Amino acid sequence: MQLVVARIGRAHGIKGEVTVEVRTDEPELRLGPGAVLLTDPASTGPLTIETGRVHSGRLLLRFEGVRDRNAAEALRNTLLIAEVDPEELPEEEDEYYDHQLMDLDVVTKDGLAVGRITEISHLPSQDLFIVERPDGSEVMIPFVESIVTEIDLTEQRAVIDPPPGLIDDRAEIASARDAAEESATDDSAGPAGDEA
């Protein structure tokens, strides 16, 4: 099975290093020296990692055969793909690979069906489940412990406890109602200072 583990960013310096946007929770395992990675586009690879280091909070990699800034810049936006045994599980108990979460049914803690996970978006601050609802619309669910309360791989479902407004429009309705009540209160009070 193939997993996207990083995306190559801009060149760094003049000796062929590149910045990478890490898309794995195990960069030391997937992006260590000697790792051979497939690429998208395929014509760019495979690439073998020669060295890696962290600089100003970003991972920098150098690949075998890439010796200057021009060659490094030519790799920009290439996805790095690792071959992973489908039976392999993450080291931590509460971690999951994307393929384990895809197609899980999403339900609320009250049992209300929300939809099915069709994509996982890895953002710098958090991961998001992209969930397709039965009507074909999509909703984004932050993959954080306070919202996603349980992942049950046996039952193939993710249980969520969404705050108001995340999967429905309760927050919008409440704010619209409050605004209407405020407007009615202001109208009934009349203009200030009009004493006859």
Major sheet strand order: 1-2-5-4-3-6
Cα-atom radius of gyration = 24 Å
Order of helices and strands: EEHEEEHEHEEEEEEH
Major beta-sheet overview: 6 strands, antiparallel, barrel
Class derived from helix and strand content: alpha+beta
Low-pLDDT ranges = 170-177, 188-196
Count the strands?
A: 12
- Assess the beta-strand content as a share of residues: 35-45%
Write down the overall mean pLDDT: 81
What overall geometry do the principal axes of the alpha carbons give?
A: elongated
First-residue to last-residue Cα separation: 83 Å
Helix content: 10-25%
- The number of helical segments is 4
Pfam families: PRC_RimM (PF24986), RimM (PF01782)
Keywords: Chaperone, Cytoplasm, Ribosome biogenesis, rRNA processing
Subcellular location: Cytoplasm
Region (Disordered): 160-196
Break the fold down into its secondary structure elements and pairings.
Blueprint: E1 2-12, E2 17-22, H1 27-30, E3 36-40, E4 47-55, E5 58-63, H2 69-73, E6 79-83, H3 98-101, E7 105-108, E8 113-122, E9 127-132, E10 138-142, E11 148-152, E12 157-160, H4 170-189
Parallel strand pairs: 7-12
Antiparallel strand pairs: 1-2, 1-6, 2-5, 3-4, 3-6, 4-5, 7-8, 8-9, 9-10, 11-12
Subcellular location: Cytoplasm
Pfam families: PRC_RimM, RimM
Organism: Streptomyces bottropensis
Quick overview of this protein structure:
With 196 residues, this protein is α+β, with helices and mostly antiparallel strands. It has helices at residues 27-30, 69-73, 98-101, 170-189; strands at residues 2-12, 17-22, 36-40, 47-55, 58-63, 79-83, 105-108, 113-122, 127-132, 138-142, 148-152, 157-160. Mean pLDDT is 81; it is low at 170-177 and 188-196.
